[in-house]
Backbone:
């Protein structure tokens, strides 16, 4: 496998969050509407931030926002109302000033339901794109062993 020099796997950070499908997330067929999987990815990112000390509030308090510039989502199996599932969120380290997360959603039988990825960039308080890691983010990466 060819190594991607823009990514580094020296320390892998993950978070697992368990969620239950709510009635309002299902379509007339009784399965989760496809658009809700992106919301589940958000649940995974928020849980990751709480667990690893990189919440949206931390980012905002440092004077930055991190809009999503790319998202992918592949569906393999359906989820239904009342089922519980788990979201495994993995931070992908990059030398670039961005946040890359990969997601895997597993059903109650531990079968892969969905996988995807999001990429977020840093904008400063003026709305300008950051080409280098903001100081607070580099400090977080150093603390996590992701330098």
Residues:
């Amino acid at each position: 496998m060819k190594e991607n020099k823009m990514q580094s796997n020296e320390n892998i950070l993950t978070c697992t969050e368990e969620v239950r499908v709510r009635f309002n997330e299902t379509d007339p067929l009784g399965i989760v509407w496809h658009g809700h999987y992106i919301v589940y990815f958000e649940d995974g990112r928020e849980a990751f931030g709480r667990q690893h000390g990189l919440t949206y509030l931390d980012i905002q308090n440092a004077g930055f926002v991190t809009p999503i510039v790319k998202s992918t989502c592949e569906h393999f199996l359906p989820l239904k109302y009342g089922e519980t599932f788990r979201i495994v969120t993995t931070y992908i380290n990059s030398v670039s000033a961005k946040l890359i997360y990969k997601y895997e959603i597993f059903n109650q039988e531990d079968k892969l339901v969905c996988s995807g990825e999001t990429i977020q960039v840093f904008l400063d308080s003026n709305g300008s794109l950051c080409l280098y890691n903001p100081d607070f983010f580099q400090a977080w990466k150093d603390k996590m062993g992701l330098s």
